[in-house]
């Protein structure tokens, strides 16, 4: 039976740990207390004597591959990019949600509607706090609206900004609150690696993933951390002042929206040195195991590309279109959604190829013994 010790050797040391928090969350949820996360978000032993070596932390890690076949079967996953039932381009009908949310506020509008109709009584999302991008268990429509978008208050200066703008939030950590809150119908919003971990927890039937009824996945080119030094270099090259940043978004490029109304676009490739190491080995761009996947790539400004992947996801999105979402008109551009899907598939292929190349470089080189 492989344990957390093996995760350290096989996943952490090669740099493949995504800091998704699944191992720590499970261990904490059942009060084993053997694991914790360090200040950088890396899982570590809290008390090695409390580890019962059950091996579940190893099985639910998305990098071990232990439960690959189980989650592929459960999701009805199909090569090369998962099951795709339908692709649409949409935005929130509510103008306030459109403005405050990311890419037209589709996820915000859907979650608010699910709260209003009683389909969920909690949602794991992320919001920007003074200490950084933080996972949050929202328990009302009002809290969902409060968490919308990626807006920033930079009054604390560049030192704070360097800490707070990471594009990653360890959202699985918020699952630890589910039992304490007594919630049993949770929507989870997360990156592909986080959705993958949730599906593994569900495959094993372990807490607290048994309370999750809907997985909403985010397109992900990688997670980036911006520090004072590298951001100053971008300021000079792209002619902006960080004090003017109102919103940051990632589509085909890294997009900065300024208080002046101007937009600065930085090629994603230019930020590659700032990418989390584990992201170099991740093959999933479009959250292939989610019920619904979302992202800005392929969509016009103010719209979201939406891929429904399960019957549940299709039903939730259809209800959203009926009540709170507007789809891009098919009559105006019959090929718009198919073009958006093609762009997603191209980005997905590029990420897979890059990950495969990087993984090959981790393999030990053969040793030739001269006789």
TrEMBL record:
Main EC class the enzyme belongs to: oxidoreductase
GO molecular function ontology, one term from the record: coenzyme F420 hydrogenase activity
Annotated InterPro entries: 4Fe4S_Fe-S-bd, 4Fe4S_Fe_S_CS, Co_F420_Hydgase/DH_bsu_N, FRHB/FDHB/HCAR-like, FrhB_FdhB_C
EC number per UniProt: 1.12.98.1
Pfam families: Fer4_10 (PF13237), FrhB_FdhB_C (PF04432), FrhB_FdhB_N (PF04422)
Cofactor(s) in the UniProt record: FAD
Gene3D superfamilies linked to this entry: 3.30.70.20
Keywords: Iron, Iron-sulfur, Metal-binding, Oxidoreductase
Keyword hit for Iron-sulfur: yes
Keyword DNA-binding listed: no
Residue ranges annotated for the 4Fe-4S ferredoxin-type domain, each copy included: 41-72
PANTHER family: 7-HYDROXYMETHYL CHLOROPHYLL A REDUCTASE, CHLOROPLASTIC (PTHR31332), FORMATE DEHYDROGENASE SUBUNIT BETA (PTHR31332:SF6)
Protein name per UniProt: Coenzyme F420-reducing hydrogenase
Classification of source organism: Bacteria, Pseudomonadati, Thermodesulfobacteriota, Desulfobacteria, Desulfobacterales
């Amino acid at each position: 039976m492989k344990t957390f010790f093996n995760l350290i050797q096989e996943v952490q040391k090669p740099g493949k740990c995504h800091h998704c928090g699944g191992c720590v969350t499970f261990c904490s949820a059942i009060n084993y207390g053997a694991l914790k996360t360090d200040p950088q978000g890396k899982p570590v032993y809290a008390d090695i004597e409390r580890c019962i070596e059950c091996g579940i932390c190893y099985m639910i890690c998305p990098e071990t591959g232990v439960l690959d076949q189980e989650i592929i079967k459960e999701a009805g996953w199909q090569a090369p990019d998962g099951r795709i039932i339908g692709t649409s381009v949409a935005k929130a009908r509510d103008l306030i949600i459109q403005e405050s949310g990311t890419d037209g506020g589709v996820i915000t509008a859907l979650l608010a509607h699910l709260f209003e109709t009683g389909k969920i009584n909690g949602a794991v999302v992320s919001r920007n706090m003074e200490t950084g991008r933080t996972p949050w268990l929202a328990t009302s429509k009002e809290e969902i609206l409060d968490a919308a978008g990626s807006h920033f208050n930079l009054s604390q200066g560049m030192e704070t900004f360097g800490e707070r703008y990471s594009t990653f939030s360890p959202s699985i950590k918020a699952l630890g609150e589910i039992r304490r809150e007594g919630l049993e119908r949770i929507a989870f919003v997360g990156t592909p690696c986080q959705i993958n971990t949730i599906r593994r927890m569900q495959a094993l039937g372990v807490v607290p993933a048994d309370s999750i009824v809907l997985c909403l996945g985010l397109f992900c080119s990688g997670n980036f951390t911006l520090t004072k030094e590298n951001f100053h270099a971008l300021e000079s090259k792209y002619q902006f002042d960080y004090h003017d940043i109102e919103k940051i978004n990632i589509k085909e490029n890294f997009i900065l929206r300024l208080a002046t109304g101007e937009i600065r676009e930085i090629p994603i490739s230019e930020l590659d040195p700032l990418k989390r190491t584990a992201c170099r080995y991740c093959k999933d761009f479009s959250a292939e195991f989610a019920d619904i996947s979302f992202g800005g790539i392929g969509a016009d400004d103010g719209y979201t590309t939406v891929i429904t992947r399960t019957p549940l996801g299709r039903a939730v999105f259809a209800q959203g279109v009926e009540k709170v979402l507007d789809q891009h008109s098919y009559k105006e551009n019959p090929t718009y959604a198919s073009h958006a899907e093609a762009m997603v598939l191209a980005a997905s292929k590029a990420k897979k190829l890059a990950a495969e190349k990087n993984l090959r470089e981790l393999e030990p080189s053969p040793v030739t013994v001269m006789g």
